[in-house]
Amino acid sequence: CYLDGIIENTLKWGPYYLIAPGIALPHARPEQGANHNQISVTTLATPVAFGNADCDPIWLLLCASATDAEAHIRTIQRISQWLDSPESVAMLQDAPNDAALFAQLTALR
After folding, report:
1. Could you give all domains of the chain from N- to C-terminal order, each with its CATH number?
2. Catalytic residue at 72?
3. Euclidean distance between CA atoms 52 and 50, whole angstroms
4. Backbone angles phi, psi at 21, to 5 degrees
5. pLDDT tens digits for 40-54?
6. Higher per-residue pLDDT: 109 or 4
7. How far apart are CA 65 and CA 8, in angstroms?
8. What percent of the chain has pLDDT above 70?
9. Cis? peptide before 26, omega within 30° of 0
10. pLDDT tens digits, one per residue of 51-92
11. d(CA 24, CA 62)
12. Which of these is catalytic: 2, 5, 22, 27?
């Protein structure tokens, strides 16, 4: 299953998916069990430390799944480029509720 792929990769390479302060993008390769192209969004009421001083603590998990290499790379690139902007990250942090956060993320399409 795809989750097992993420866990396996994390055990092998550490938290390779920490992409910005407070934000993680857990993902695995398409051949590790991806069934659909999708992203799940999880906000953590209590942020979690992953052991990375540059990114800890993590408050937002964007779990990405892609069924082929092209979609996998395109999804990760689009999210990474968008989150490269401090203004974009601030918009996510300042979202008053999960619905507003989701609206910000769906604007990435």
Report:
1. 2-106 (3.40.930.10)
2. no
3. 6
4. -55, 120
5. 888 898 999 999 999
6. 4
7. 15
8. 98
9. no
10. 999 999 999 998 888 888 898 888 888 888 877 888 888 888
11. 6
12. 27
